[in-house]
Design a protein that fits this description.
Elements (H helix, E strand, L loop, with lengths): L1 E9 L3 H8 L2 H4 L6 E6 L4 E10 L2 E15 L3 E8 L4 E12 L2 E12 L4 H28 L1
Antiparallel strand pairs: 1-7, 2-3, 3-4, 4-5, 5-6, 6-7
């Protein structure tokens, strides 16, 4: 299973960070390779990504389901592949610290089935980069 975590100090109140992170539609567009997402219900959304993988364009569809929200400090979610056999989860946490908010994004993903042997090494390389980029982009947008 590939795992990644990235934290940033945001010079904003925890409630401001929560107001942004607790609304998927505000930050979904910031995920690298994002194409679109659709809300299925208040807890579930379907996302589409498209990127280059080993010289060809790869489209990935997945489901994000919010499984726990602890305002204003934590959101936990599950990830399920719709186009490929993978699953995982993650969380955003926001803790008051040093007059601002310390925000962390953690994500883990594993691919199964026949494609798992090919996808897992790529996921292990890409997931830390994607997690870092997303966390940094969210921090910049909150501060803008």
């Amino acid at each position: 299973m590939a795992q990644a975590s990235h934290s940033v100090q945001i010079p904003m109140h925890q409630e401001t960070v929560w107001a942004f992170v607790s609304k998927i539609e505000k930050w979904a567009v910031l995920v690298p390779a994002y194409k679109e997402h659709k809300e299925v219900d208040s807890q579930t959304s379907h996302w589409t990504f498209e990127g280059n993988f080993k010289g060809s364009t790869k489209k990935v569809e997945l489901e994000i389901k919010i499984i726990e929200m602890n305002e204003p400090s934590q959101i936990k979610f599950e990830i399920k592949g719709l186009s490929d056999n993978f699953k995982g989860g993650g969380e955003f946490t926001a803790e008051p610290r040093d007059g601002g908010t310390y925000m962390t994004c953690k994500v883990e993903v594993t691919a199964g089935g026949l494609s798992g042997a090919v996808l897992n090494p790529a996921i292990k390389v890409l997931l830390p980069k994607v997690t870092t980029r997303l966390t940094e982009k969210i921090a910049r947008h909150i501060q803008a």
